[in-house]
Amino acid sequence: MNLPPHTTSSGAARSTAAGTLADPDTPFAVVDAHRMRRNIDRLATRADGLAVALRPHVKTAKSPGVAAFLHHGTPGPITVSTLAEAEAFADGGYTDITYAVGIDPHKLPRVLALLGRGVTLRVLLDSAEQAESVARASRRAGLPVPTQIEIDCDGHRGGLKADAPELVEIGRILHDASCLDGVLTHAGESYFAYTAEEQRLAAKNERDTAVAAAERLRAAGLPVATVSVGSTPTAHAAEDLTGVTELRAGNYVFFDLVMAGLGVCELDDLALSVVVTVIGHRPEYGWLVTDGGWMAMSRDRGTSVQAQDQGYGLVADLDGNLVPGLVMTAASQEHGTLTARDGADLPDLPVGTRLRILPNHACATAAQHRGYHVIDGTRGTDTAPEIEDFWTRVTGW
After folding, report:
1. End-to-end CA distance of the chain
2. Is 122 helix (H, G, I), strand (E, B) or coil?
3. Of 314, 397, 303, whose CA–CA distance to 356 is shortest?
């Protein structure tokens, strides 16, 4: 399919990039569009098989160009993690948005402004205090704010337990203001589910907990339109989503080393990498030094708790082939340190050599960059991979 028009965050047209991965100044982020489309199609097919709607989380890519592939080029339901994302995607024609972070009452005027534009923007909360704030703001504006109650399915971050005494009270506060939309949960602990069986059980618990909370509200005479679940590991492990209306995930669009370490994907599925340049050698320490530090990769060290610690990322050549045993093991702000595993010899990589670093956490790495250069990894070339396009991000920077 054709890409959407290229725009900056201000909406101005931007010229198409040209050349190869050997041309732009490093460090920069690159997306393999073939891998990305394959990842998107994989989960879309799975959601269809589970008979649930898919509401992708766009916090990973933060890009309308990427989001255009999620629903066959037409704006569809999405999840966001900031109101800046909600506003930017609303500007791009998205009208069905869930803001999946607990609502700060101070932000409700921005929520109401989006609702006033015809955007269905759902907010999330887990306390009576928040519910009262939403109800007051809705009555004052004469505009109900569709609201979901966050359910804690695994002891991770916010949310109420499905059997929490205050669940029905919060539901009633919202319902009386015509704001109650449903319940939402996220199996955050699935990122520490290291086997397929653990991930299957996490998905089952996620579903069971959300459905139990919805049933409690319905038993109290409160309507529950939406039962929303999801994380990238559980979305790929769920076997039965009876009672669930929608599935959320975001990381799956790019995948990363954490997901590969869990077995949710293969290294060949990772669609995001960062191109860096070798700028020095420290043979006395066994180091190669690059111009890509934590400002390019983020400080995320998510694989440090897995069986194989991947440092700050694995190293590949410009064609995407892994350099055996080479790992980015340290990072300062603008410098990356590459070392060989298990005392192996460093490869001979002269100053000026360009490499691609595969990240631990795609969401965190993507957030370090203002845009992506795009390639198609299936297209062979005798030189560096050709850059096909440039997609800007729209996070309100």
Report:
1. 28
2. strand
3. 314
pLDDT, averaged across the chain: 93
- What would the DSSP string read from start to end of 250-288? -GGGT--HHHHHHTSS-GGG--EEEEEEEEEEETTTTEE
SS3 239: coil
215 vs 227: CA distance, rounded Å: 10
Question: Taking phi first (over 0 means left), then psi (-120 to 50 degrees means alpha), and beta for anything else, what does residue 351 get?
Answer: beta
Phi then psi for residue 294, to 5 deg, are -75, -15
Q: Is the pLDDT of residue 141 over 50?
A: yes
Q: What is the pLDDT of residues 190-211, one digit of tens each?
A: 999 999 999 999 999 999 999 9
What is the arithmetic mean of pLDDT over 163-172? 98
Look at residue 6 in the predicted model and tell me its pLDDT. Answer: 33
Beta strand 78-80 pairing with 96-102: parallel
d(CA 71, CA 290): 38
The secondary structure of residue 49, as a DSSP letter, is H
Q: How far apart are CA 243 and CA 170, in angstroms?
A: 21
Residues β-bridged to residue 103: none
pTM over 0.90: yes
